[in-house]
Design a protein that fits this description.
Elements (H helix, E strand, L loop, with lengths): L2 H12 L4 H16 L2 H13 L5 H18 L2 E3 H8 L3 H10 L5 E3 L2 E5 H16 L1
Antiparallel strand pairs: 1-3, 2-3
Length: about 130
């Protein structure tokens, strides 16, 4: 079963569940949507044992998958972003100021997630395709 088929099936049965189970199912669907090799391995194990798990055990698997996603997140420095985009650091500051690139400031230092960079890339591609 593909990831999209699993997500569709999960969302179909979600309405029939009590609120506690519904919360778990929605967390699970969000995890599947984010993907990744470590998530895929945990998901395969989870799916193979799904019918025999208690609600508490299922919640523990989902917690494990969420922790794996959090641990896999990498944040990039302004210098790394400038190098990846092959632009000057001042250009990155301008992208931030213009609202084209989002990030977070930790103290006096900017940090950018992969999602921030992907959104910037999509916006640039959309802008250039017009």
């Amino acid at each position: 079963m593909t990831k999209n088929q699993v997500i569709k099936k999960v969302l179909e049965i979600c309405d029939e569940l009590n609120p506690e189970k519904q919360s778990l199912v929605l967390r699970y669907a969000k995890i599947l949507n984010q993907g990744g090799n470590q998530i895929d391995a945990l998901n395969n194990e989870f799916q193979s044992r799904m019918n025999e798990l208690t609600l508490k055990e299922a919640a523990e698997y989902i917690d494990k998958m969420e922790r794996a996603i959090t641990a896999a997140k990498k944040y990039y420095t302004l210098q790394e972003v400038a190098a990846a985009l092959q632009v000057d650091e001042r250009s990155v500051y301008r992208f931030i100021k213009d609202g084209r690139l989002h990030g977070m400031k930790v103290g006096r230092v900017w940090r950018f997630s992969q999602e921030d960079l992907d959104a910037f890339d999509r916006a640039q591609r959309d802008k250039n395709s017009l």
